[in-house]
Amino acid sequence: MSDSAQPLPDGLTPGLYLVATPIGNLGDITLRAVDILSRCDGVACEDTRVTGKLLKHLGISKPLWRYDDHSEHRDRGRLVESMRTRAVALVSDAGTPMISDPGYRLVNDCRAEGIPVTSLPGACAAVVGLTLAGLPNDRFLFAGFLPAKDKARRETLEELGATDATLVFYETGPRLLKSLATLKEIMPEREIAVARELTKLHEECRRGLADGLMAYYDAHPPKGEIVLLVGPPEEHAPSDADADTMLREAMQTMKASQAAAKVSKATGLDRKTLYARAMEMKSE
Ligand code: SAM
């Protein structure tokens, strides 16, 4: 928050508050979200009916303003201007604003105008899916929705498939089989997770290869909302020939023991074995 903004009578500083809301289980609303929604001057939202229901459930009554990033620039400008003296919450229909949802233009404009912005963390389907799937998650790449058209979907998957990370996509029931079919063609060996109806009564997380998952969902057409996760490419141990090449290169500038240590660090191969091979190569 900037130092210059004066707190409103209820103690809130004027500005924009990004408020995450539940993705299915109302119990996932945070205490802080309830506090800000109760004290703000109004709520900008994707769909006033959806947000109206949530606020009713929380016993909160506030003016609701429809917002999406395609709103006229003039309307957005007015909303931003109003935040000089008002505290405005931004929510999406479910989950974290801006994660495949509107808001980024609003935040960008607020930043440009020096309007304070605060983000309240909470539910996000991508994160729930990632934690539930049990796929490697030290690196992940969230890529939103895959393109609907076959060619564009294939190109996107081909491009992202080379990334050394778990890929996270938002998916819909009717399109899941098509995405799995493309994955089966271009990454048949990758471990995949279909995380469905997260935080809801019929939550499900099913793991497997594209082939098996296709067979399952062909027989059980998937209902509800889906996060599709694709595990990273398997690390392949370098072949003996590759290791020799790396050793030879390293030994041009360093001793055999140092070369073995370097190649071992890069490949995970045993340092002593590499050293023995380096000595052999030296004497050849
Ligand atoms: N901003 C939201 C968030 O933080 O998760 C995502 C909004 S995006 C328009 C909606 C997509 O999120 C759905 O099509 C689905 O892929 C995913 N999603 C939302 N809720 C979900 C849930 N309960 N289970 C699985 N996926 C969900």
UniProtKB/TrEMBL annotation:
One GO biological-process annotation of the entry reads: methylation
Q: Which residues form a coiled coil?
A: none
Does the keyword S-adenosyl-L-methionine feature in the UniProt annotation? yes
Q: Where does the protein end up?
A: Cytoplasm
Q: Which domain of life does this protein belong to?
A: Bacteria
Q: CDD domains per the record?
A: RsmI
Where does the record place the RsmI HTH domain? 238-282
Quickly give the catalysed reaction. Answer: cytidine(1402) in 16S rRNA + S-adenosyl-L-methionine = 2'-O-methylcytidine(1402) in 16S rRNA + S-adenosyl-L-homocysteine + H(+)
Listed EC numbers = 2.1.1.198
Query: Where are the membrane-spanning stretches?
Result: none
Q: Write one Pfam family the protein is assigned to.
A: TP_methylase
Top EC category:
transferase
Domain Tetrapyrrole methylase span(s) in chain numbering? 16-210
Q: Name one GO molecular function term.
A: methyltransferase activity
GTP-binding listed as a keyword: no
Keywords for this entry?
Answer: Cytoplasm, Methyltransferase, rRNA processing, S-adenosyl-L-methionine, Transferase
Cite the Gene3D superfamilies for this sequence: Cobalt-precorrin-4 Transmethylase, Domain 1, Methyltransferase, Cobalt-precorrin-4 Transmethylase, Domain 2
Q: What is its main location?
A: cytoplasm
This chain's function reads: Catalyzes the 2'-O-methylation of the ribose of cytidine 1402 (C1402) in 16S rRNA.
PANTHER family recorded for this chain?
Answer: RIBOSOMAL RNA SMALL SUBUNIT METHYLTRANSFERASE I
NCBIfam families given in the database record: 16S rRNA (cytidine(1402)-2'-O)-methyltransferase
What is the similarity comment for this entry?
A: Belongs to the methyltransferase superfamily. RsmI family.
Annotated protein name in UniProt: Ribosomal RNA small subunit methyltransferase I
Gene source species: Qipengyuania aurantiaca
